[in-house]
């Protein structure tokens, strides 16, 4: 598959950049303060079953609203958090927050789970299974309600070690997904070495599925290959009915994107779950501000 992350890297240095933010030489301290001052918060984006349109899970996405810089995209600050090692306490904070909030959500839907993004730095430089067990001592939950998203490129970095960490996570009953699938250079035979539950097809492929022949073929191929390997497949960044219909035709299991909902507060997720399903009629007026 084509390597597309280069495009994102370019974006990082241009349009996404809040120059006042990027020029600040004291970012690490600012971020450390932000963690203390509770300037970070989480939003959640539904992952919806393509056939039933019921919410299966939600992805937790970090937000930073700084009094000094305004709203900063995670695409910008996560990288700095990784470079400074601050991603480790930030991830710990995310785990604590999600373990706490999931308890309220389970009361509405006992099968729901929440996906948490884990960066490569975290896997490399910390003991993630241990961190999870520590957080569990504080916030007792059943870990079947947690999924971790690891990117494809990060897994290929050290296949043996990562496979070992993943099997430890699986022993804790955690679900595992491969994020941004198609943007790294993974070999299919290696994918089988990892105890993966789900592949998330990167948005850059979904963007083209109604217009670009190559993207159509790639997406169809990823779906059938994933199913052959026993993984579920979710498409990221689905925005239109045409994209949804294509993915449904080719048996993509789940959908995540503005078509159903932007990332929202946990309270909003609970409202969605009370409704139990994305009613396509309601969606236009209530669920989805862009339609
Ligand atoms: P990701 O994990 O691939 O998350 C999906 C991104 O696509 C999110 O951007 C989400 O808001 C956006 N998205 C979802 N559906 C649509 C759509 O239909 N249209 C469009 N245009 N965008 C859509 P977000 O929240 O800005 O996050 C960007 C990236 O930052 C994430 O990509 C992830 O790599 C990283 N990130 C976000 N939160 C965390 C976190 O808590 N920890 C770590 N380590 N990384 C995070
Ligand atoms: Mg993700
Ligand atoms: Mg992704
Ligand atoms: Mg991404």
Mean pLDDT, to the nearest integer, reads 88
Q: Structural class given helices, strands, pairing?
A: alpha/beta
Helix content: 40-55%
| Span of the ends, CA to CA | 32 Å
Sheet-strand content, in percent, reads 15-25%
Radius of gyration: 19 Å
What is the tally of beta strands?
A: 9
- Gross morphology is globular
- Number of helices, counting only DSSP H or I runs of 4 residues or more: 15
Q: H/E order of the elements?
A: HHHEEEHHEHHEHHEHEHHEHEHH
Low-confidence stretches: 1-16, 284-291
Spatially, the strands of the biggest sheet line up as: 1-2-4-5-6-7-8-9
- What compounds sit in this structure? ligand C2E, magnesium ion
| Main pleated sheet | 8 strands, mixed, barrel
Task: Give the gist of this structure.
It is found in: Membrane. The protein is α/β, with parallel strands linked by helices and 291 residues long.
Textual characterization of the structure:
It comes from Psychrilyobacter piezotolerans. This is EAL domain-containing protein. It is found in: Membrane. The chain has 291 residues and is an alpha/beta fold. The chain is built from 15 helices and nine strands. It has helices spanning 5-13, 19-23, 27-36, 74-83, 87-108, 120-125, 128-138, 152-157, 159-171, 188-191, 203-206, 213-228, 241-249, 266-275, 280-287; strands at 40-49, 55-66, 70-72, 113-117, 146-151, 175-181, 198-201, 232-236, 254-256. Strands 1-2-4-5-6-7-8-9 form an eight-stranded mixed β-barrel, surrounded by four helices. Strand 8 (232-236), helix 13 and strand 9 (254-256) form a beta-alpha-beta unit. Helix 5 runs parallel beside helix 14 (266-275). The protein is globular, with a radius of gyration of 19 Å. The two termini are 32 Å apart. The model is unreliable at 1-16 and 284-291 (pLDDT under 50). One magnesium ion is lined by residues 59, 117, 149, 179.
């Amino acid at each position: 598959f084509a390597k597309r992350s280069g495009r994102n890297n370019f974006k990082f240095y241009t349009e996404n950049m809040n120059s006042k933010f990027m020029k600040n030489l004291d970012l690490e301290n600012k971020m450390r303060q932000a963690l203390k001052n509770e300037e970070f918060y989480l939003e959640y984006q539904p992952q919806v079953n393509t056939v039933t349109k019921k919410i299966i899970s939600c992805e937790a996405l970090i937000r930073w609203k700084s009094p000094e810089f305004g709203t900063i995209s995670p695409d910008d600050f996560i990288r700095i958090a990784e470079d400074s090692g601050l991603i480790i306490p930030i991830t710990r904070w995310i785990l604590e927050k999600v373990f706490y909030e999931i308890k309220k959500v389970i009361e509405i839907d006992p099968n729901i789970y929440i996906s948490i993004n884990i960066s490569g730095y975290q896997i490399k430089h910390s003991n993630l299974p241990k961190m999870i067990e520590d957080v569990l001592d504080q916030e007792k939950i059943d870990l079947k309600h947690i999924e971790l998203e690891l990117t494809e490129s990060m897994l290929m970095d050290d296949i043996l070690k990562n496979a070992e960490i993943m099997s430890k996570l699986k022993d804790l009953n955690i679900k595992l997904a491969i994020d941004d699938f198609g943007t790294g250079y993974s070999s299919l035979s290696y994918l089988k070495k990892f105890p993966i539950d789900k592949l998330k097809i990167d948005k850059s492929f979904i963007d083209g599925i109604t217009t670009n022949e190559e993207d159509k073929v790639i997406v169809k191929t990823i779906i059938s290959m994933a199913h052959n390997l026993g993984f579920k497949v979710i498409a990221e960044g689905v925005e239109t009915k045409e994209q949804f219909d294509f993915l449904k035709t080719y048996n993509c299991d789940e959908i995540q994107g503005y078509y159903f909902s932007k990332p929202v507060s946990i309270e909003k997720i609970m409202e969605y779950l009370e409704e139990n399903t994305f009613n396509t009629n309601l969606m236009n007026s209530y669920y989805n501000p862009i339609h």
